[in-house]
Structures are given as structure tokens and as C-alpha cells.
Amino acid sequence: MTFVVGVTGGIGSGKTAVSDHFQRLGITVVDADLASRVVVETGRPALAEIAAHFGPEILQADGTLDRAQLRTAIFKDPSERQWLESLLHPLIRQEIASGLKNASSPYAILVSPLLVESGQSQLTQRVLVVDVPEELQLQRTVNRDNNPPEQVKAIMAAQASRQQRLNYADDVIVNDGSLMDLQEKVEALHQQYLTMAKTSSE
Ligand code: ATP
């Protein structure tokens, strides 16, 4: 079984910067966000179920999912969110598990914003939290997305707190320096994970 490290953190914490660097080091990275898009691609059974449940107006003219409409529908009604999550979570999990199974490196990374909240951490042996001071998190996210600070603050407030994440972390990267500093921290953990993966397969 592949040794899997889950990477998580809040919005704009640096998860992608971290997982990109693991990938550069030759490690297979499975992205939960990508998996959640794949399971509702055209032709997938989940898309037909969503259209049957919410009506055809949930699809765009080209037959693909209208994500903005779906977001509005589940935002208005928590029971609709629950319905959607119970449909998609098992499928996303399957998609992730198959990506991890096909990993071609000594260990694999699963990067997920909701690693623990969604139960995906059950697919991992270790949880790496990317932690960042809130001021810096806000500044980097606003710069990246060009969104108003109030909107980013609202998202941050709705997510798990720094302390909640640190409570379930096995490893922590504090992403408060340069990108170069971040890469060095990833490289140090990479060495540890290579050793752990080797030990766990013996
Ligand atoms: P999301 O969950 O919103 O997708 P994320 O956790 O994947 O975010 P990134 O996209 O990796 O976060 O980082 C957010 C932004 O901050 C990006 O523009 C990234 O280039 C930048 N960034 C990340 N780490 C650093 C750093 N150490 N120094 C400078 N910029 C950084």
C-alpha cells in the first residue's frame, strides 16, 4: 500500500505551492479539487443525477454543470447541500483512491482543502498542515484572486480555524517566508517521508 501524506490548509495558505514542489521532487500528487470536478464531468452518472434532481436548468447550454447555479441552490437550502454531498463524497473518494493507487513514487501526496472535514484523511497515513498568519493569508489571497478583502475574510471565517487545523496536524509548515523558504521546508519533509515510506513498507 502506498504511504500517503495529506496536505491541507485554509484558503490561500500555500497548499498548491507546497504540492507543486512535492511534484517537482518526483512525488505523485492527487488533487481533491480536481477529483471533485472529474466526477461531474459530462457523461458521468453523477451529472445526470444532479440534472434529474435540480432540473435541467442546472446545466449550461453545452451540457456541462452550471457551478454558479449549483452553488446558489445548495447555499439556499442545507438539505440540498446534504443531498449533493452524499452523492458526491463517495465518488470523489473513489476517484482519489484510484489516483493514489496508481502512484508511481515512493509515497504520494493528497492535497485537499477539506482533508479532515470530508473524511478523506482516512486515505492518508499522515496529515501535513500548511499554516499561515491570517494577515498574510488575506493579503496573498486578495492578490491572487483579485477579490475584495471582505469576501476573503468571510471565507476564512467559515473555514476551520488555525488552531483546529493544528490540532489534527502530524506535521506543520509555517508558510510565513519566501517561496524559496517554503521549498526548503518541503524538501526537509520530503526526506522524512521517504524514510517513513521505506519503513512502513518493510
Ligand atoms: P486555495 O485553497 O485557495 O486554492 P492554496 O492553499 O492552494 O489556496 P496557493 O495558491 O498555493 O494557496 O497560494 C496562495 C497565493 O500565495 C498564490 O498566489 C501563491 O503563489 C502565493 N504564495 C504562497 N506561498 C507564498 C510564499 N511563501 N511567498 C509568497 N507568495 C506565496
TrEMBL record:
One GO MF term: ATP binding
Top-rank taxon, per record: Bacteria
Gene Ontology cellular-component annotations: cytoplasm
Reactions this protein catalyses: 3'-dephospho-CoA + ATP = ADP + CoA + H(+)
Residue sites binding ATP per the record: 12-17
Keywords: ATP-binding, Coenzyme A biosynthesis, Cytoplasm, Kinase, Nucleotide-binding, Transferase
InterPro entries, per the entry: Depp_CoAkinase, P-loop_NTPase
Entry-linked Gene3D superfamilies: P-loop containing nucleotide triphosphate hydrolases
UniProt-listed GO biological process terms: coenzyme A biosynthetic process
UniProt keyword annotation of Iron-sulfur present: no
Pfam families in the cross-refs: CoaE
Similarity comment: Belongs to the CoaE family.
HAMAP family on file: Dephospho_CoA_kinase
Name of the protein: Dephospho-CoA kinase
